[in-house]
């Protein structure tokens, strides 16, 4: 039997259901569109503020992405709430899903947190020579989850950020100057005043050695094999390895030209020529 709807019934149905639903849908769409517009404005403002703070571009982009996702989630929840959806249950489901994903990706989240801190506090940057995470090399890139180093023998090493941030970080490029530490041992038969003069001449002959602070040249130890000298000049960080190699070679040549002996490890054995023998009774 066909349904017989009068005009009044249709009007009451529209007023009771259709019109409120239509209003809610339109309002939800307006909330979503206006919310998205406001979110983009806020993200742009956030980006300009972060750029003034001179953070790394990858960190700025990452913070903007996280903020954009959070704002989008808020806008979606507000739109669904306008449609009458139980957003409390939805938030609880999203929270439980986030917890499960976090437990499953615990190691990745540690790398992520460490990468965020590395980019935020910047203990090193690209181009620096560092020792961290059980390796050493020039920093090629700093990512959210891992950093890439180039070793001195030109190997690419990818190190998880958690390994870097959880241990000691030695940055050899952070400061403009470095001290070159050299040590030499000469024979007890050599004149230590002559040796000190030679060492001073070799150091002063290299114009890459800085005079402030002044180089240190001193006797450090009287060892079993000879007299030990320390030579500690200061140089620009970029000159460290060339100066180290050149001074080592030039000092050996200076020793050879002036008859200074570098002793080998040795042991003296004293024999008693009177041997005692036991006589049988």
Helices and strands in order:
Blueprint: H1 7-52, H2 57-82, H3 87-104, H4 106-121, E1 129-132, E2 135-142, E3 146-150, E4 156-160, H5 161-165, E5 170-171, E6 177-179, E7 182-186, H6 192-205, E8 209-210, E9 216-222, E10 227-232, E11 234-236, H7 240-257
Antiparallel strand pairs: 1-2, 1-5, 2-3, 3-4, 6-11, 7-10, 8-11, 9-10
Helix pairs in contact: 1-2, 6-7
Write structural notes for this entry.
- The chain is of the alpha+beta class.
- The protein has three domains: 7-104, Helix Hairpins (Orthogonal Bundle); 123-171, SH3 type barrels (Roll); 177-257, Alpha-Beta Plaits, CATH 3.30.70.
- The protein is 51% helix and 18% strand.
- The chain is built from seven helices and eleven strands.
- It has helices spanning 7-52, 57-82, 87-104, 106-121, 161-165, 192-205, 240-257; strands at 129-132, 135-142, 146-150, 156-160, 170-171, 177-179, 182-186, 209-210, 216-222, 227-232, 234-236.
- The strands form three sheets. A five-stranded antiparallel beta sheet has the order 4-3-2-1-5.
- Helix 1 packs antiparallel against helix 2 and helix 6 crosses helix 7 (240-257).
- The longest helix is centred in the first third of the chain and has 46 residues, at 7-52.
- The chain is elongated and about 135 Å long.
- The protein starts with 6 loop residues before the first helix and ends in a 24-residue tail after the last helix.
- 14% of the residues are buried.
Q: Summarize this, please?
A:
This protein is of the alpha+beta class and 281 residues long.
Q: Report the portion of residues in β strands.
A: 15-25%
- Order of strands, main sheet, comes to 4-3-2-1-5
The appropriate CATH architecture of the largest domain is: Orthogonal Bundle
Averaged pLDDT: 82
| Number of helical stretches of at least 4 residues | 7
Find the structural class using helix and strand composition.
alpha+beta
The overall number of domains is 3
**CATH overall fold name of the largest domain:** Helix Hairpins
Major sheet summary line: 5 strands, antiparallel
Intertermini distance: 143 Å
Query: What is the radius of gyration?
Result: 37 Å
Total number of β-strand segments? Answer: 11
Relative helix content: 40-55%
Which regions are unreliable across 5 or more consecutive residues at pLDDT < 50?
277-281
């Amino acid at each position: 039997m066909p349904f017989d709807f009068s005009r009044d019934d249709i009007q009451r149905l529209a007023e009771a259901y259709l019109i409120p639903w239509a209003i809610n849908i339109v309002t939800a769409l307006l909330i979503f569109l206006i919310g998205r517009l406001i979110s983009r404005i806020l993200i742009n403002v956030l980006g300009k503020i972060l750029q003034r703070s001179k953070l790394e571009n990858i960190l700025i982009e990452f913070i903007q992405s996280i903020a954009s996702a959070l704002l989008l989630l808020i806008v979606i929840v507000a739109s669904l709430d306008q449609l009458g959806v139980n957003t409390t249950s939805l938030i609880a489901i999203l929270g439980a899903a986030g917890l499960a994903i976090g437990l499953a990706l615990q190691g990745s989240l540690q790398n992520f947190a460490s990468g965020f801190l590395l980019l935020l506090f910047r203990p090193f940057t690209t181009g620096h020579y560092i020792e961290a995470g059980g390796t050493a090399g020039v920093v090629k890139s700093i990512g959210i989850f891992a950093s890439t180093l180039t070793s001195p023998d030109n190997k690419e090493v990818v190190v998880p950020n958690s390994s870097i941030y959880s241990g000691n970080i030695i940055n050899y490029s952070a400061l403009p100057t470095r001290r070159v530490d050299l040590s030499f041992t000469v024979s007890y038969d050599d004149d230590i005043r002559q040796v000190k003069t030679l060492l001073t001449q070799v150091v002063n002959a290299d114009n890459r050695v800085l005079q402030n602070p002044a180089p240190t040249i001193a006797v450090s130890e009287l060892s079993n094999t000879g007299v030990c000298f320390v030579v500690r000049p200061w140089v620009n960080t970029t000159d460290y390895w060339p100066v180290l190699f050149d001074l080592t070679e030039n000092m050996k040549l200076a020793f050879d030209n002036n008859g200074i002996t570098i002793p080998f490890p040795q042991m003296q054995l004293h024999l008693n020529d009177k041997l005692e023998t036991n006589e049988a009774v």
